[in-house]
Design goal:
With 640 residues, this protein is of the alpha+beta class. The protein contains 15 helices and 28 strands. A six-stranded mixed β-sheet has the order 1-5-6-4-3-2, sandwiched between helices. Helix 2 runs antiparallel to helix 4. The protein is globular and about 85 Å long. It starts with 11 loop residues before the first strand and ends in a 5-residue tail after the last strand.
C-alpha cells in the first residue's frame, strides 16, 4: 500500500534542549504564506525551502532576516516527496541539493554502521573520540531498538555508501539542526511502503548543551528510530514519527530530559490537535507514547508500528488498543485525564516524570453557580479542554454537569475529582448528538476543593469544534434527543409558529432499521488468493475485508448489526467507517470491535459502549474474517 503525502514530509529531524524558542514568522512560514497567496509558484516554494536548509544565501532578500528553522529535516522531506510534481529544471536543482553528502573521505565502521567524516576543513570533526563516541551511541541505539525491543532493522541500502552497512554522515549542518534521517529508495519486494535511508549528524554539539556527548547520544537513538520506522512505513504521519523518536530518547536516557524543553508547546495549548506537525508541537507530544507504554506495556509501540505497515497510525491505535481491551477514544480520554495530573498536581502511578512536566492550561475556572459557558479555544481533533469548578464554602447537595458538543464530531466528556494521591472519574454518557449529563453525589465531592470537566474532541478529522456546558449544585433530569429540522415562521403578529420533525428514535429511546434485506440469503464472495496478484504475496493469504454501504438520513448512533453468516463459526472483526469516494474511510471512534459469530441464521451483534455515533450520509459496515471457512451471505437481489 503506497500512500503519498504532498504537504507533510518524511525526512525527520531533531530539535533539542536549548534550541527551543518562541519565535514569530519564520523563513518557512513566510514561504508557505506567499505560496498560498499565489505570490510564488510551487517550484519556487520547493526551491526556497531547499535553499533554507542547504544554502541560505540563495534565498531572496525578503526572507533573509526571518527566523530560520531549528531543523531542516521536514523541509527536505517535503521537497523530496514532491520531486515528481515540480518542473524538470526544478527537479534537477533539487536532486543536486538533496544528494548524499560528499567530501567526507574518512570512514569508521562498527557492526551495523559506517560513519563518514573528515579531519579537515569546515566539516572536520573535533577529535577522533568524537567519531568513536558517536559509533558507540549508534550501536547502543541498535541494541535498544532491534536487539532488545524487537523492531525491524533499517532496510539495507545495498552498497550505497561503500557497503551494506547503514551510513551516517558527519558534517557541519546548518545552525540549530541536531540531525536528520532521509529516506532514499522504496523496497519493491515488500507489499508495504518501506524505504532505505541515511542519517546526517552534526560535527560539533558543544554549542548546544553543557553535556554535548549526552546530546549526541539522545540524537543518535532518536534518528536511529526514524531509520527503523522507515522499515515499517516511510509515509507514516510525521507527527507520530517524531512522537515515537522523542519517546525512545526518554526510554533510552531517562535522566537527560532534553525532550522536556518542548512540552510547553503541548501543555500550553491542549486544544491544538496532537497531529500538528510544525517543528515544535510534535516533540512536546511525546508523552502520548509514554502514556501508551505505561498503560499497555512497552510492546504496544512496536505493535502500532507493525499495524502502520498497512494503516495510518490513527487507525492503528484503534486496531491495536482494541486488542488490549481499550479503544482509541477510550485511550485518549484517559490520556487527557493524565495530562491534568502533572507538575504540582502530579499523582504517583501515572507519568513516571509527571512532577517535572508543565501543568496543562485551564480553559476556564468557575467559582459561582449556576455556571455555564463555551470554549474560547475550541478543541481540534484529538485535543482537549479543561474546565475547573471550584467548590465554594457552604455548598451542598449533588453537583450536576450537562454537556452538548457540536454535532458531527465525536466527543468524550467526564468529570474528575482530584485527591491528594488519587482521583475519581465520573463519565458523562453522550448520545449521538454529543449531549449528556452526570450528577455527582455530595458524598463523592465533599471534602474536595474542585471538580474538573475534561472535554475531548476525539474525532479523527474535521478541525476545531465547539460545545456548551452547564453546572450547578443541583440534580438534572434526563436528556432528550433534540427535534429535527426546527423551523420558525416569521410574519405573524404576536406569535412565532414552529414546525419540526420528531427526534430520531422518538426522544429518549427507540430505533430505526437500515437494511439491504429481502429475507433470503443467496450467494457469497469467495476469498481471493493474493498470490493471483503477485506470487510473492502468497505468504499474506487472502483478501479478508468485505463490507456493505448504508445511508443515514440524519445523525444517529449505530447500536446493533444483524448478520447472516454461513460456513463454520469463527471470530470476526467488524469495521464501521464513513464512505470515502465509494470506499470505506478511516474507522469511526468505537470501531473496530471483535466478536464470535454463529452461522446458519440471523445473529444480532450488540455494539458496546452505547453504540457508535454516525453522522448523516453514507457509511460502511464491514468485517475482517480470521478464517476462510466463514462468509457473510448476499441477498438474492444483490447485483455484484
Amino acid at each position: 500500500m503506497h500512500r503519498q503525502f504532498v504537504v507533510f514530509g518524511i525526512v525527520l529531524s531533531l530539535f533539542i534542549g536549548t534550541l527551543v524558542a518562541n519565535t514569530g514568522e519564520t523563513m518557512l512560514s513566510a514561504i508557505d504564506a506567499e505560496y498560498r497567496a499565489g505570490q510564488i509558484s510551487f517550484d519556487d516554494a520547493m526551491l526556497y525551502k531547499a535553499y533554507v536548509v542547504c544554502d541560505r544565501s540563495l534565498l531572496p532578500v525578503r526572507f533573509q532576516n526571518l527566523t530560520p528553522p531549528r531543523s531542516g529535516g521536514h523541509v527536505l522531506a517535503e521537497v523530496w516527496n514532491n520531486l515528481d510534481i515540480v518542473s524538470q529544471s526544478a527537479r534537477e536543482t533539487l536532486r543536486h541539493l538533496l544528494s548524499r553528502p560528499t567530501g567526507l573521505p574518512e570512514t569508521y565502521s562498527t557492526t551495523h554502521y559506517k560513519i563518514h567524516y573528515t579531519n579537515s576543513g569546515g566539516d572536520a570533526v573535533p577529535n577522533p573520540g568524537f567519531v568513536t563516541d558517536m559509533a558507540d551511541a549508534y550501536e547502543d541505539a541498535w541494541d535498544i531498538l532491534v536487539t532488545d525491543r524487537g523492531y525491524y532493522a533499517p532496510p539495507s541500502d545495498g552498497t550505497a555508501g561503500g557497503d551494506s552497512k547503514y551510513d551516517i554522515y558527519i558534517f557541519n549542518l546548518d545552525p540549530g539542526i541536531m540531525g536528520y534521517t532521509a529516506p532514499e529508495v522504496t523496497i519493491p519486494s515488500t507489499p508495504w511502503y518501506d524505504a532505505t535511508s541515511y542519517i546526517a549528524m552534526r560535527n560539533d554539539y558543544s554549542g548546544y548543551s553543557w553535556y554535548p556527548t549526552q546530546l549526541m547520544q539522545a540524537t543518535a537513538v532518536h534518528e536511529a528510530f526514524h531509520s527503523v520506522q522507515f522499515a515499517y512505513d516511510a509515509s507514516e504521519s510525521p507527527w507520530f514519527m517524531e512522537v515515537s523518536s522523542v519517546w525512545i530518547e526518554d526510554e533510552a536516557y531517562p535522566t537527560y530530559d532534553y525532550e522536556h524543553d518542548f512540552m510547553t508547546y503541548f501543555f500550553n495549548d491542549p486544544e491544538i490537535s496532537i497531529t500538528l506537525y510544525n517543528g515544535t508541537h510534535e516533540y512536546g507530544s511525546f508523552h502520548w507514547a509514554t502514556y501508551l507504554s505505561e498503560t499497555f506495556g512497552d510492546t504496544v509501540m512496536r505493535e502500532i508500528w507493525l499495524e502502520n505497515r498497512y494503516s495510518s497510525c490513527v487507525t492503528s491505535f484503534q486496531s491495536v488498543l482494541s486488542g488490549h481491551g481499550s479503544s482509541r477514544s477510550g485511550a485518549f480520554a484517559e490520556f487527557f485525564t493524565w495530562n491534568y495530573f502533572t507538575g504540582s498536581r502530579n499523582i504517583s502511578g501515572l507519568y513516571p516524570e509527571g512532577a517535572d512536566y508543565p501543568e496543562i492550561s485551564i480553559e476556564r475556572t468557575h467559582n459561582a453557580y449556576p455556571a455555564s459557558g463555551s470554549p474560547t479555544n475550541q478543541p481540534e481533533n484529538l485535543a482537549s479542554n479543561y474546565i475547573v469548578f471550584n467548590v465554594p464554602g457552604g455548598a451542598s447537595g449533588p453537583f450536576s454537569i450537562t454537556f452538548d458538543g457540536e454535532d458531527g464530531h465525536s466527543w468524550i466528556a467526564h468529570a474528575i475529582i482530584p485527591g491528594a494521591t488519587s482521583y475519581s472519574v465520573f463519565p458523562i454518557s453522550l448520545n449521538s448528538f454529543g449531549y449528556g449529563s452526570v450528577t455527582i453525589d455530595s458524598t463523592d465531592w465533599m471534602g474536595h476543593t474542585k471538580i474538573v470537566l475534561v472535554v475531548g474532541n476525539v474525532s479523527t478529522g474535521g478541525g476545531a469544534a465547539t460545545y456548551t456546558y452547564n453546572a450547578d449544585f443541583a440534580e438534572v433530569g434526563p436528556s432528550y434527543n433534540p427535534p429535527r429540522n426546527l423551523v420558525a415562521e416569521s410574519g405573524h403578529t404576536g406569535t412565532v409558529p414552529l414546525t419540526w420533525d420528531a427526534p430520531l428514535g422518538g426522544g429518549t429511546g427507540g430505533t430505526e432499521e437500515l437494511s439491504h434485506d429481502d429475507g433470503t440469503p443467496a450467494p457469497y464472495y469467495m476469498p481471493r488468493d493474493l498470490s493471483e496478484i503477485d506470487p510473492s504475496y502468497a505468504m499474506y493469504g487472502h483478501i479478508i475485508y468485505e463490507g456493505t454501504k448504508f445511508n443515514a438520513a440524519v445523525d444517529c448512533t449505530l447500536k446493533q448489526i444483524d448478520v447472516y453468516f454461513a460456513g463454520t463459526g469463527a471470530s470476526v472483526e467488524f469495521h464501521i467507517a464513513p464512505d470515502d469516494g465509494g470506499y470505506p474511510g478511516t474507522d469511526f471512534t468505537g470501531s473496530p470491535f471483535s466478536t464470535t459469530v454463529t452461522t446458519g441464521d440471523w445473529q444480532t451483534i450488540n455494539i458496546s459502549g452505547g453504540g457508535i455515533p454516525i453522522p448523516s450520509g453514507n457509511f460502511w459496515v464491514g468485517y475482517i474474517r480470521t478464517s476462510d471457512d466463514i462468509y457473510c451471505t448476499f441477498d438474492s437481489d444483490t447485483s455484484y
